[in-house]
Amino acid sequence: MNHKEIAVRLIELLGGEDNIVSAAHCATRLRLVINDETKIDQEQVEELDGVKGAFSSSGQYQIIFGTGLVNKVYAEFAKELDLDQKETVQHSEAAKQKMNPLARFAKTLSNIFVPIIPAIVASGLLMGLLGMMKAFNWVDPETALYKMLDMFSSSAFIILPILIGVSAAKEFGSNPYLGAVLGGILIHPSLFNPWGLAEGTPGVMDLFGLKLEMLGYQGTVIPILLAVYVMSKIEKGVRKIVPNAIDLLVTPFVTIISSGFIAFIAIGPLGRMLGTGISTALTNVYEFAGPVAGLVFGGTYSLIVLTGVHHSFHAIEAGLLADIGKNYLLPIWSMANVAQGGAGLAVFFMAKRAKTKEIALPAAFSAFLGITEPVIFGVNLRYRKPFIGAMVGGALGAAYVVFMNVAANAYGLTGIPMIAIAAPLGNANLINYLIGMVIAVSVAFVTAFFLGIKEDEKKS
What is the pTM assigned to this prediction? Predict the structure, then answer.
């Protein structure tokens, strides 16, 4: 079947045009909001040419086609349904309406943090390069090259409130440039940069008798999230009562001045305390429970992925980087992800159906690169037992990396790509990360192989 034929047939199997509320796609999946999912012919959808799996999650019915193919199918799909550019924006809101409050909250955080991952990863890799240059004396720290790389590597974390301000404002339906301004206020040069606390102490401002510490919020997460949320409410409220003729002058002015005062007086200090509290609590659990924590988190992470709540973890990881300078959660998630790939490989060797093999092998390698949806929903959950094997492998791999204190200097990358952000923290860190991957993949493979599959045992 060609792409148009696949799209036409897919619409039929989904219950017709009237049953499709909206559509969008990501790198690997067609994401649909459906009126009545009981009208979907699940078995026939999964048997359709090019489909590697289909499942319902996060308020959406998601069909896995894989990189490249999904773009071509969506193009024909959109033509058949007369979708326009606005549909992608509407789709996000339509999907949220079908989620429970927890899933909606996780989706909101995901929408805020996923777009800024490239900036964080780039800074993490630059920090790694800088660390190696310093450790091996490749460049004199007093040279212009070293100083420039130092500026390049830390910039994303210094202006993190601005990046989050823009992204959060878009998500909350506010003006993104006002979000950027609010982020800029929180890291203004007049404020003391907390990264330099070892060299001095911040001053104090007297605001009508109220003592305010002149401490900046560079690298922080929660203060700007809360501040932009409040700002969006203020902006929308002001816009409702201000005449259109003076909206451009009055609304931004009132929004920024009121949001700025509230951020400095209440939200900023509260957000800093909350963020530090979360990081401290997690670190205490991590240090107290040790490998047991890794065993539990690594074993259950794939279950969390099924709910979509894992997208909210980026906010926690960003907070860890700001507070303690390293991310010890990412290696745990990585073990769970590559273990799914190991179980998927086991399915490839056990399966007799050609379509199962065709899906299992590329899906397994996709998991090794950090993209787990194809192997989880298209292979392991379909036969159930491989998913259990992956949980076992993920648990043991995570227990090892926690025991060896493996960490990352950024967030967003798992599997093989995470090597790039594990290496900068030292050779031992990298070696133990690789050993953890071997443990996770091999245990998942052996366990899944031992449990076996029944090819007629499909996930309903």
Answer: 0.67
